[in-house]
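S1.2 Input.
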Amino acid sequence: MAMDYDLYAQLESFNTRLTMNTMQFLMKNGEVVKYEKGAIVSREGDPSDHVYIIIDGSALVRKTDHLGNQVKIATIESGGLFGEMGVFLDMRRSATIVAQTPMTAARFTNENFINALPRTPDLTVKLLRSLTEKVNKVNWRVADMAISNAMLVIGTYILECPVLDDLASCIMDSELVKKETRLEQHKIVDALKTFHKRGLIRNLAFNDGRNFVFEAKVPELKKFLRKLAAKT
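S1.3 Output.
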């Protein structure tokens, strides 16, 4: 169905203002779809054959983890785009989209959406901002995962140090640690600094430009590593 003119006010309220030309195009070429709270809009692994703009309401983005659990990874608010990455990458849905509230959206075929971009610069800007946000979020998750993995490796390495009264006295040869863990120097340093900031190790020093010297609180470190492993 073509979009009704009474959606004009809602379209106008988008975070990125759309011009009259764009709104007219949307109302002519978009299909209005409504979802009840909890309804699945698209499933992970489905073909990416439509692009959506949320007019009213919000949606949850869920992804299946390695154990088969559905994990919430993001929320899309009114005015937000989703499905656009599949248009350009010719990929299947990378996540499941669920209506978080009763939701109204404008749905476009990939062809209509692509055809709109040369004629609607403001929609193109909105698309680019959406893609940039998603890339930045992925980069942050990758960075977080990298430091988490480094902390797990270094934390396990620390637990091999001699322990006296729940306190491990450690002298770590940086070159040997790099060789045995295959971690770069800056990742080792970042992991140790994070442990130190969290109070899991104390008296951290880097002697002779080669050896890391510190004391580790073994019970607290083990507890932290267990929680970190559960999230990774």
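S1.4 Remarks. The radius of gyration is 25 Å.
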